[in-house]
Specification:
By secondary structure, the chain is α+β, with helices and mostly antiparallel strands. It has one domain: Creatinase/methionine aminopeptidase superfamily (Creatine Amidinohydrolase), CATH 3.90.230.10. The protein has four helices and 15 strands. Helix 1 runs antiparallel to helix 2 and helix 3 runs antiparallel to helix 4. The longest helix is centred in the N-terminal third of the chain and has 23 residues. The protein is globular, with a radius of gyration of 17 Å. Bound molecules: 2-amino-4-trifluoromethylsulfanyl-butyric acid (MF3) and cobalt (II) ion.
Length: 249
Amino acid sequence: MIIVKTAQELDAMRASGKLAAQILASVARSVRPGVTTRELDELADRLIMASGAKSAFYGYRGYPGHICVSVNEEVVHGIPGPRVVQLGDVVSLDIGVEYHGFVGDNATTVLVGVTNPEVVRLAAVGQQALAAAMQMARAGRRLSDISHAVQRTAESAGFSVVRDFVGHGVGRRLHEDPQIPNFGPPGHGPKLKPGMTFALEPMLNMGVAEVEVLGDGWTVVTRDRKPSVHFEHSVALRDGEPVVLTVAE
Ligand code: MF3
Ligand code: CO
């Protein structure tokens, strides 16, 4: 069953979404050559703590970081550590917070002085894919209309979508029903209703769609080691229309 939130619950989700977006924006501004991914994690941890919230990721199935930092061929779930960010890196940040009982989940990809035009285009198309997905998050549509919008946007631009990891319902818990694949034919799955809340998160690859998980049990990388981007918003169907919850103001 997909959980439908009340108006009060949607207000609370707005607050957690806003906080998640503010912290993501702060950490994104701190991504520069020379910073380690652990320093980014420590910054996020401090900001989350100072807000009276907690990381929705830390300890989740044993995840050891407060945020995920995935560089270049890393797709998602990169564990912060001693890795130093270099000029030309593609740095995906994924930040989820639990605040007053509700989770806000969002991600963005920062291009650190990237000059390769294909990488710049990959990131632009990734953002377009998320925007296309959000446009389909409205009452009357079906769940797979979201999936299809992502796939069409990515593949018509010559990129591939990751199939092994998906978007999800979000609310009191980080992962609620349903799973939301970033591919598939339109017009399938449950009908979307007012009060549903989703984390939509396309992951686009420059090369092949296939991914593998490194020996640390978490870090997901592209099989061909070509770059990947990740953009995520938490979204609500308020009055049936899509409202982005993870906005910083
Ligand atoms: N945004 C990702 C997701 O919703 C982040 C999960 S990281 C984890 O799946 F550590 F919490 F698993
Ligand atoms: Co998510």
